[in-house]
User: Which sequence fits this backbone?
């Protein structure tokens, strides 16, 4: 069957033809309630409730949902399905289950997280139960173990490179919106808010910054260390109490591990700029993220049986792991800085700034994010410990 | 038509059915003389002469030619054809022309280099006209410009990753024979020649060396900088006076640029160990290689319009290029060392050692190669200039 944009009725008809999915919902098609809950920038999302259970159905549109004149290849849904299948065994319970993927409709059918809230919203409402960052650290470390070169024969990584390098439509967004646009004059950049024009101009003429961004562009494009989520911000995470799930893996690509870490930490740091009174709690989240990430990685890589490091005995491997973690830390700092800047002045900004109660507060918050972002980008490459990252954030 | 191993008659019949190739040969099929000249480890090669011209036909066998019980997927011919097509526009005149690729027969039909000699043989016979290394330096730099991230939109590199990551059968050979086997006990390792057993054992128990090899494994697998030839030794180069051509691109994969540089220099250094009286000439070749490579790269990347370094002005870009070259230099030293060691004690050793007139000389030559190789691997990562490489080689 060829692609068509599904509405409630179309989705109902399609689901009724899928015996396994119908069984999960229970009853008959007319018993099911369907509501559209599209929230992200790119896709339509429906929640379907039946007598026996619920499903989440996510369909790719041929354009950006919030910008219909920006075409966007449908294949991103395929990459999201591939991502979920590639990492699911390693992160059971940390992402929704994928029940089905329809290659014609570019439609994913997943476990429904009805009770969960998007982490960004929970943070803004100050309702996130502390400790979520430790789960995310574990999540990233486990995806690295499942897809990197240390724990797997090199053919595993080669296959992932083959399967994900074609995800160029979404990687182009990353290359443009994160790695380039905020540092140049560009139609996609929104008009800066009052008082920020000089700061934006400074970003576009700062040669020291541009050189450091160039090194991060190099890292993003050439350092193919593991399969990245590729868009791991606080809007790609849902939680219900201590149940934390990562969603929206459509940006998946092989890349530098610090990219996932940096985007996550960058979004916590953006929240910190908008809500500096929460510094203690946010610092604790960042520390918990890095601790769980690095501890999980240390233990996971200690006995890795991949081709990379295959010769190393126990002591040699520990040395390699520590060097590896230091390199990840440096990338993390740089990508964290890029995320802070692009989410402050770029095409897709964060809602966290709505926490600022006055225009002046918001301006100061944005300026602080730009300043921390710049420092992380320029000085990140010489960091030696995670405390150094916190220190550059003023924590 | 399905795959079959071609003999003279089978090749003649097939060529007769290809109008364009028949026309290049001239006359009719019975006028053509065909002789098998298979020389490498993996494939059969035929030279076909006709009244109007000649062709070189290379067919992949389903096993290693010199080890019929070692199966080897036919697809390597496809990757060689892809490699030639990917780099041909950038290296016109520096590789044979590819006239046809038959996907069923896994057969490449190329320009015939009748007057050319393999560089390794020419070196052994002391008949190579000096200056060939400058051409190879240019060749590597131009392939980098055509396939790296600085001069091309990132989609080009992504497509190359997609097209070449599946070349796992031959990359597995690299991972095993170059990056792993010489440093462990392994059935594929030949019995060391008399007097070398202790040196081989030392390689297998040297933890400092193993740690450094681990870092190079990491570089080879994760640093996907440009499309590599992947097997750029002196047996993959043919020359006729000053006409120098690179052949045998079947190991092609995206990888660290220093891998191609290091393999080439490593083979010159192996020749040096076997023929130390030629030190002045070989030093000059090495200097010429690095000079032409780095100068071509400097000028080629100065105006690159890729996504990587897109923000850099002239001064910033020069700085990025110099850092880039220094990183390539360090990789080069390490991979050079790996090549020297594996070609001295590993599965596929070099004929250059036949130049040693006594067993004792040969033993000393091999020991010197192992010592230089180890030093390059362990100390390469802290080099700051090409003179440092020469100095580690005692030049």
Assistant:
């Amino acid at each position: 069957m060829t692609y068509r944009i599904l509405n409630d009725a179309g989705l109902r008809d399609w689901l009724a033809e899928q015996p396994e999915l119908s069984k999960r919902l229970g009853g008959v098609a007319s018993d099911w309630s369907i509501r559209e809950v599209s929230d992200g920038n790119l896709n339509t999302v429906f929640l379907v409730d039946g007598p026996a259970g619920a499903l989440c159905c996510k369909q790719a549109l041929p354009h950006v949902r919030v910008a219909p004149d920006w075409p966007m290849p449908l294949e991103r849904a395929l990459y999201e399905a591939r991502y979920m299948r590639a990492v699911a065994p390693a992160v059971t319970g940390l992402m929704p289950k994928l029940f089905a993927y329809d290659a014609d409709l570019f439609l994913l059918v997943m476990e429904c997280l009805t009770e969960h809230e998007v982490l960004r919203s929970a943070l803004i409402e100050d309702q996130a139960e502390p400790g979520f960052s430790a789960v995310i650290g574990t999540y990233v470390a486990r995806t690295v173990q499942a897809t990197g070169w240390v724990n797997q024969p090199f053919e595993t990584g080669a296959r992932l490179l083959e399967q994900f390098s074609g995800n160029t439509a979404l990687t182009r967004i990353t290359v443009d919106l994160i790695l380039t646009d905020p540092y140049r004059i560009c139609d996609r950049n929104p008009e800066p808010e009052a008082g920020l024009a000089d700061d934006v101009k400074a970003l576009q003429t700062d040669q020291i910054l541009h050189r450091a961004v160039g090194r991060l562009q190099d890292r993003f494009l050439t350092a193919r260390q593991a399969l990245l989520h590729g868009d791991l911000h606080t809007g790609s995470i849902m939680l219900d109490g201590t149940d934390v799930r990562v969603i929206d893996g459509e940006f998946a690509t092989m890349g530098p591990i610090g990219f996932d870490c940096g985007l996550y930490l960058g979004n916590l740091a953006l929240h910190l700029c908008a809500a500096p009174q929460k510094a203690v709690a946010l610092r604790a989240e960042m520390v918990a993220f890095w601790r769980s990430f690095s501890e999980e990685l240390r233990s996971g890589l200690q006995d890795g049986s991949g081709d990379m490091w295959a010769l190393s005995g126990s002591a040699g491997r520990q040395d390699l792991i520590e060097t590896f973690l230091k390199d990840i830390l440096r990338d993390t700092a740089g990508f964290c800085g890029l995320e802070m800047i692009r989410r402050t002045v770029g095409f897709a900004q964060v809602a966290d700034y709505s926490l600022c109660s006055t225009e002046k507060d918001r301006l100061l918050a944005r300026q602080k994010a730009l300043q921390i972002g710049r420092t992380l980008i320029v000085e990140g490459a010489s960091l030696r410990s995670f405390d150094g990252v916190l220190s550059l954030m003023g924590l």
About this structure: The mean pLDDT of chain B is 96. Chain B has 14 helices and twelve strands.
